[in-house]
Structures are given as C-alpha cells and as structure tokens.
Design brief:
Elements lengths: L5 E5 L2 H11 L2 E5 L9 E7 L4 E7 L3 E5 L4 E9 L2 E5 L2 E4 L7 E3 L5 E5 L3 E9 H12 L16 H20 L5 H20 L1 H4 L10 H13 L7 H8 L3 H12 L3 H18 L6 H8 L5 H12 L9
Antiparallel strand pairs: 1-3, 2-5, 3-4, 4-11, 5-10, 6-9, 6-11, 7-8, 7-10
Helix pairs in contact: 2-7, 3-4, 6-9
Length: about 325
C-alpha cells in the first residue's frame, strides 16, 4: 500500500529508530529480540493538511510516541495489538473501525506478533478551522470520541474514505492528484467532525435558516467556480452563515446538497465539451479541467447520468 511513496525500508535498528523519531513524533522503538529479523517498511504520502502512512513489520515490536499537534486515525489491517494512551490500555485487539489518538497526548503500541497498519494524520488546527466553518462559531477545544464509541455507520464511512484515498493515490492518474488530495482531505475531515463529534454539534442541530440571498450566493459561486473544490470553509465564507446551515437548507431549495449541485453542473459541462470535440484525449482533459478528483470517478458519474461511457468517438 502507498508503494509510490516509500519512506523507510530497513533491517537496521538505528535507521528504524532515527526514522521513527524524525517522521512519526517517535519516542522509542523496542524489539524483544534486540535486532530486526525482517524489514520494517513505512510508506508515507505527506501533504500540507494531512498525511497517510502505511507501515508493516512481521515480528513483535513496540513503539512509543510523543504528544503531537495532529490527530491520528489508525487502522490495524492484520494481527493483534495493545494500545496504551497516556499509559492506559484502551485497545487490545484489531478493530475494524480503528482507533483515534487525540492531539497533544503521548501514546504507545505493542504489536505482539507484528502488524500491518494504515494511519491518517490531520493537524488539529485544520480540523478546528473546519469545525468553526461548519458551526459558524469558534470552538476552543476539539472534542472527538473514539470510532468504536461513535455510530457504527459513521465510523465505517470514515474508514472507507481513508482507504479509498490511499488506493486512489496509488492507482489513480497522477495528473489528478492535486484535485484528489484537496477533495479527499476535506471530505474525510467533514466525516470525522460529523461522525466523531456529533455530541459537540448537538446544540447546533437547528441553526437559523440562511436567507434566499445567502443561498443564492452559494449557487452563483458554484456556477462561476465549477472547476474548483467546494469545501466547508468556502461554503461558510461565500454564504456568510455556517456551512452546516447551508447543508441543511440547500437541499430544501434545490433538492440536493451543494456538492451534488456542483457535480450536476460539471457533468453537463462535460457533455457539451465532449459533443464538440472528436479527440479521444478530450475525456481526460475534460475531467481535469472541470475539477473531477479522479478519472474513474468522472467516468462512473458520467455513466450514471447519461447512460454511456464518456467517449467522444461514440458520438
């Protein structure tokens, strides 16, 4: 996984310890056997607002981590682990919904028979900023619950989005990567905030409805900027109200979410462009220019909307 983003591949304990401290807020590495018998592999895709890290090792090992300014969502893909958060064991087995390490908390993990895991790191200030946009007010503290304590469907959607992000980074067309990264990070952050902090949002379930003028601003922005990603911060800035309020009331006026409305406009624009262009390369060009985060996603949405593959030659 994430093989296009290699970071560490070593049997040397000193190299493993150095990489752990330099790239993972690491505190210590403990190998019961004293020295590595197998290669420890770590691949990492790092971006301004998040990082994805895949790591695997086939023998017992323990890691300590210092407190960090990011949250970490960890998913054990195989094998059993024992997680300790500030010295208290909170997880004794591989969990399909993963576990969350909050910001500014030291932690450790003991893999008794090795491990294979995928982790997503998101800076706390990024989530804080998006939460403020979602609520329309500043929050002093980000309070996220463990995925195992949240709604099962919400936790499952977060896991699915993170694994899909890793897969698209590896298998997708590199030309779409900047769009993919921006879209995926915003989508995952929104799923984390609505799925793991629903108790924080409880008091904001029914904010005042935005005016027709405010919703109209969102519509006008989408039409004029259809090739750009539409995140929660953009919705709050354009409308002048909370993004959560826009989400709730946009559907009643337009019959869809803001992002669904954006997708419809992009598909209509793609249909017109492909009608007038006989070049086979026009499919990729249209998907890129219209802001789709992946070619496969564009092709699937196009088939669902128009009942055919987006091929100019077929026209």
């Amino acid at each position: 996984m994430l093989e296009s983003f290699p970071e560490t591949r070593s049997r040397d304990l000193n190299e493993i310890e150095a990489a752990h401290r330099a790239t993972a807020y690491g505190d210590y590495v403990d190998l019961p056997g004293g020295s590595p018998r197998h290669e420890l592999i770590a691949n990492a895709a790092r971006f301004n607002d998040a990082a994805l890290v895949f790591s695997t090792y086939d023998d017992p090992v323990s890691f300590g981590f210092k407190a960090a300014s990011c949250i970490r969502l960890n998913y054990q893909i195989r094998k059993t682990s024992e997680l300790a958060l500030e010295g208290r064991v909170i997880e004794n087995a591989s969990s399909p919904v993963g576990y969350l390490i909050p910001t500014d908390r030291p932690w450790s993990v003991r893999h008794t028979v090795g491990y294979r895991s995928l982790s997503m790191r998101i800076p706390g200030e990024v989530l804080q900023r998006k939460l403020s946009a979602l609520l329309g007010s500043n929050r002093e503290q980000l309070d996220l619950r463990q995925p195992s304590a949240a709604d099962g469907r919400s936790a499952g959607l977060i896991r699915e989005a993170i694994f899909n992000f890793a897969e698209q980074l590896e298998l997708g067309d590199p030309r779409f990567r900047p769009l993919l990264v921006e879209h995926a990070i915003d989508d995952i952050c929104l799923k984390v905030l609505t799925g793991l902090s629903d108790h924080v949002l409880e008091t904001d379930r029914a904010p005042a409805a935005p005016s027709d003028l405010q919703l109209g601003r969102v519509e006008q922005y989408i039409v004029a900027n259809f090739s750009r990603p539409l995140g929660v911060e953009t919705l709050a800035e354009v409308s002048g109200v909370s993004a959560g309020s826009v989400f709730r009331h946009f559907r009643s006026r337009y019959g869809c979410t803001p992002n669904e409305y954006l997708g419809k406009i992009r598909l209509e624009m793609a249909y017109v462009r492909l009608l007038s262009c006989p070049d086979n390369n026009a499919v990729v060009a249209a998907a890129l220019q219209l802001g789709f985060p992946s070619l496969s996603g564009f092709e699937q949405a196009y088939r669902e909307r128009f009942g055919e593959h987006p091929s100019p030659m077929r026209r």
